[in-house]
Amino acid sequence: MKWLLIAILTSLISSGGSTSWAGADNIPEKETPRQRLETLAMWKMMESLNLDKATADKIFEVRHKFLGKRKELRKSLDEDFNRLNAALRDEGAKDKELSTILDGIRLKRRQIISLHDEQYDDVSKILTVRQRAELVLFLKEFQKQIRGLLRTNRSSSQDEGLGHSRKNKPARDVFNSQSGSEE
Length: 183
Description:
Shape: globular
Oligomer: single chain
């Protein structure tokens, strides 16, 4: 089962999200790799928690309630990182400008954390205590597997000469481990 998950994720990441796999007929064609990963996480979570259809539907409803809000915040956060990167390259950038951008980044990160907390509260109203405990462990393990897969994929790309220099690349949110895998 673990090898199947890794194979699916590897093909998903390496294809840029265009790969379709058996049983994924419910995934819209225009989903991004992040959206496909979130969908896969939801499927695996439902399987892991052994949820009935009614409970699974409620969980999906909660997920969709917060998905759009998080997507908007992430997009805005990415824009802030791009602005910060541009401001740092500009020799004339004032500390006040940098400070304003940094404050915006910090605020949006807090909002994302708050959304995660709100989502957890909503899910807690649906799941039993035992299911919530299983969910927490599932998410921890799933994120660990994704990070390992990404690390392996990144190192193999660099080994093949496909690695790129970070010079003049947009900054990434190194403080927010949730931004790259989620939810």
